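quick one: zinc ion bound model?
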Amino acid sequence: MATDRDRELEALRPQHEGRVMDLVEAAGVDVSQWAFRKDGSPVQNPAANPNYCYEWAFGGNGEPNLLCVWHRSMSVSDGLIVYEDCIRDLALKLDRVAIDRTNPAHVKSRARDQAKRARGFDSLLQRAFRRSEPVRIIVLQGEQRAAVEVGWETATVRFRRLDDVEWYVHAYDDDGSFRIVRGVPRADNAEATEADDEGTSPDVDENDSAPEPPPVPYLDQFSIPDAPERRENTGTSFNRSAEVRRATLARAAGVCEFCGCAGFKTASGGVYLETHHVVPLAEDGPDVEWNVVAICPNDHRRAHHGEDRDILFDSLTAALINRYPQAREILETLRTRRATQGVT
Ligand SMILES: [Zn+2]
Ligand SMILES: [Zn+2]
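yep, here:
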């Protein structure tokens, strides 16, 4: 028997072909950049700008948090309309598609793009949870891809609508699974007081503690404008996520993740280590935290050129598997492939 909530959920089903850009704008997120390409040149049809219109998450960082969610993923649970999922798992599935050399190039490249979108979705949700911020939802209706064919087919969206009601992240677990609830703020804000990784308004409530020292800026080769070693030795320039580098440097906290020595202090007062993709981007290594380490410049060169670079590779992969057990399978696949094909 359908309850009022069931009917409410049914009424949320989109019936019209809303354009993403219009809905994003209606949610209060700035869309002025949609009119431009990455190089700054104007695009003919901003609403179809591929840099934006396929994204799964918009806004955040001062703007409203906005996520695209399939209507069929929503359900009624305990009398509430909820969306429960683990987008981090989806990102890993997409990574697997992206590194599978039996897949055609366009499938791999689409999977890579989608994995990036999935991670954007996940980090926006995570931040909203930590900051107890509401989330707006663009509800999608159409052909959703099944998990088995992840990365193969682009899902076809038929209808979209912007939900007028705000949603709230009630749970975000360590493994990345979450629960967001329509229209009901999280009752208990206890978790929201945990330190925010981006240092916005820490809300110091322990009156006995001394003021926190300013955070040490952790720098890598890409933080220094004219550093000669801004590229890996692939000869090709790849896009690297600044967020991944930042998270990796924060994880290492100024200590080389291979040898354990402290990074040197820079003239500007930061601590310097270099970020390194353990499985190179050129070998389909994903640009994600579980494939990036922060190591001292000496070990970095050694990882690329040392006679013992295979030992460094094995040691760094083992450390990453240990730290990110959910990435074990994919890292082991990449490691085995490397061992059998040899390093170039
Ligand atoms: Zn080192
Ligand atoms: Zn490197």
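The first helix runs from residue 4 to 11.
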